[in-house]
Amino acid sequence: MFASMVGFFLSFLLISVVLILIMVGVVSSVNKDKDVKVSNNSVLLVKLNTPITERTSKNPFENFNYSALTANENIGLNDLLANIKKAKKDEHIKGILLDVSSVAMGIAMLEEVRNALIDFKDSKKFIYAYSEEYTQGSYYISSIADQIFLNPQGGMDFKGLSVQMMFFKGALDKLGIEPQIIRHGRYKSFVEPYIMDKMSDDNRKQIRSFIGSIWNTLLDNISKSRHLETQALQQIADSISIQKPEDALRLKMVDKLVYRDELLTAVAKQLGLAANATINFVNITKYTKAFVKDEDKKWNADKIAIVYAVGEIHSGKGKENQIGSEITCEALRKARTDDKVKAVVLRVNSPGGSALASDVIWREVLLTKMVKPVVVSMGDVAASGGYYISCAADTIVAEPNTITGSIGVFGILFNAKKLLNDKLGITFDTVNTGKHADIGSTARPMTNSERIVIQRSVEKVYDTFISRVSEGRHISKADVDSIGQGRVWSGSDALKVHLVDVLGGIDKAIEIAARMGKVSKYHIISLPEQKEPWWYELLDNASDDAENAMLKHQLGDSYKYYQQLQSILKQNGIEARMEYDLEIY
Fold this sequence. Notes:
- The protein is an alpha/beta fold.
- Among the domains are: 32-158 and 242-289, 2-enoyl-CoA Hydratase, Chain A, domain 1; 303-408 and 484-577, 2-enoyl-CoA Hydratase, Chain A, domain 1.
- Helix content is 42%, strand content 19%.
- Helix 11 runs parallel beside helix 12.
- The radius of gyration is 26 Å and the shape is globular.
């Protein structure tokens, strides 16, 4: 038996080593090109079908497909925007081809990339867009193109936006689990799925308001790019007029119906090449490694620090896709104490999380603001705790489609007594040294006195929250309370109620920070520093990555519900968190 155990262990170890070597080999082959040389008459190929994060990960296993043992190249928004800007000045790049059957990014990120492409067009270089099937997101980003091509057998989705919520009350009732809710904010509807079977009137009102604002932004911008009336676009959506490719062409949503070979012929013609000539395409991910001579860009010791705060907010160090209060505060302190850093841009893309961790980060933002300018750049979501850590900044910049606000707090405890006692036959007996020593136990309901204690804590955190906003935004607490109450706002509407100062993306935030820091020549540093070397990441996260990859493969689109459940189970204490994970179709 002992020999069998040793054999099993050695076999497992050998297989693991071989697997790691295969993974390293695959990743090395993907990343073997150190420098990319761009030939004359080239076209930048922009594909956005892999998840776009805030910044390009240095972990080559970030998008590793463990089931297929293949490595997918990834690019972050930082390099994506930089590459488009670089291509604008690159004399070897004659145009851009958007190959966008799908886009794996949030709606505010889409806005930033779209605006970068509009800026690229100032170079008088062409932009073509092609897809076999346009989603609303891929069409929105493609609408700025000089020519929009659609496969003759393809399709286009253009029907408006929808927010869908899942409610668990019925399931919890059947299981015998009672959600015990303590909250402040009439719009703070994070808890609604656990105590209701449909949206409250207040929640429906706020959702209708902010998705209406986002939809109007999309219509207005498509209208300008395609020279179509917004009323006509709304009619197309309401009547689902695009049911076949010919409809999209007739309604002037696209310019031509072509197969891919015909697309390549059109690109070749634009480049002045023969119809069957080979086109030099440069992939946007590889273009990061291309050197482009830029006479205007000279090295300068002055710096602007971008501090990334991405993901849910937790106390401690956090993980790769979380905002850990320790790591984020350390990054802010590093930027604050570096005399060469003249201003700080805090890039926030977060639905919130721990109220305590949010306050800890808020304090570091405030201390940094006392020393040098701090500008917040909001991504797809900067709500609840995400807004908490933003409100102390000198200036807040958001996209029109950013989801923000949600100034409110809540606590939730689950009473599983019926499930445990009646359905599973599990009972508990407890000995306490204090009357409320077991407060928060899932084996019994809260008492009225315990509910009062927790409610007071929630009220205190809410009062602190609106006080922070009041001080940072220079508006009265009463006004903050009136626009707070957990209500969610689009960036456009948040501007009207003074929750943000300027509409724009991260480039706008950097521009403002440079002006406030009184620097014209500078270079960018990114904090927190990404972990290196890569093999540390591999050893640190390999088991988690493999498990998550397999779950994604098995669960498909339902994986997001697993993530939501994991997030709920990890909640601890009073939360300043966005009501729900939004899916805007």
